[in-house]
Amino acid sequence: MIPRARLDSVIEADIQALIDHGVRESRTLDYKRDWPADRDARIELAKDVCAFANSLGGDLVFGVHEDDGAAAAIEPLQLVNLDAELLTLTNTLRDLLEPRVSGGLHPHPVPLASGGHVIVLRVAPSPGAPHRVTKDNHFYARTAVGKEPMDIHGIRNAFAFSGSLADRTLEFRSDRIAQLSAGQGSRPLQDGPVFACHVVPVSAITRRDAHAVETLLQSATVLQGTAPAGVDVGQPAVDYDGVVVSGGRDGQGRYSSYVQLFRNGCIEVAAICEVDDRGVPPHPTLYPFRPEHSLVRTGLPRILEALATLEVNAPAYVFVSWLNVHGMRVCIQRQNRLEGFPALPEHLRHIIGPPVYLEDFEGNPAEVLAPALDVLWNAVGVAHTQTDFAAAN
User: Fold this and answer.
1) Could you tell me which Gene3D superfamilies the record lists for this protein (predicted)?
2) pLDDT in tens, 176-210
3) What fold characterizes domain 7-150?
4) 237 in helix, strand or coil?
5) Helix 365-378 crosses helix 300-309 at what angle (to 10 degrees)?
6) Confidence band for 334, pLDDT divided at 50, 70 and 90
7) According to CATH, where is 3.30.950.30 located in the chain?
8) Strand order in 146-149's β-sheet?
């Protein structure tokens, strides 16, 4: 891929750098001199998209001439109606693949100072893989030298891998929850219920790359802004799993929150929740507004920014969990007025939100996280989170 995790930040200088350094086509990068203007060209392009979606994802760069696989020159594209062309292409490509790629196709036009554009079409690795091209019924995979049809063994392995991808993501979250609930997280936490968020990029499961410690430390400085407001946060520190940022340390060496950046690009946020156990209301009560507000307003945006600095691309799974909440009530507050304290069901020790799939890193955090945040409120009979994300901290 072009070395920019955020597609919308790719500019002409990035394209020129590919040429200046003679960057070669690879498993995640392919150059196309011409725009696929007709049906036959788009069918051929669908094979490339299929191969990327079935493999590690990648960038198709239109408007760049290659010489023996290396970027050689910019060939500006002159498209009369740019937006219409991009929409038509992405819709056509989705229709040519089975199952359809519901998301994961992201075109980005790069304006050129001399006029015209280079267009980058980013294809995400697909959790719905393997896909096939409907016109020839072939499944394709991407190799170091281009695309190739899968043989029967490759197809069988692709189906097996696709089925295990979500399972492996859930296993990571389950393992981390087990450690947190047992008090064995990345940092010792103070007593109380724990609000946890896990972000698992698909590339962390499919590629299993280990990022250098120096890169992790640089990215972790962004994560210092994920702590709840008012919590003093220390400098990023190297630990067994990668790099951790922790805050709110007490006299016993325990913390109120931490953010763990794993070597493979996964991120774990863990924070002790505010609880009122003074007897009014009569049972320990959870106030979810602060962690939810913090995650939506600063936490998730900072996490995605940190992934961008690591050049970790979408897609990714996001999980939200509330741990050690047995016997608690939940405060319902609307427009700064307390309106009730319903009890969580007696049998629940943890509230485990469903996985949220991010096709890209551009969405509104409140809308993206809503399915995961709503589960706590569903447990007390409320349809959706009652947190006012527009309010100031």
Assistant:
1) Schlafen, AAA domain
2) 999 999 999 999 999 999 999 999 998 888 766 68
3) 3.30.950
4) strand
5) 130
6) low
7) 7-150
8) 97-98, 132-133, 138-143, 146-149
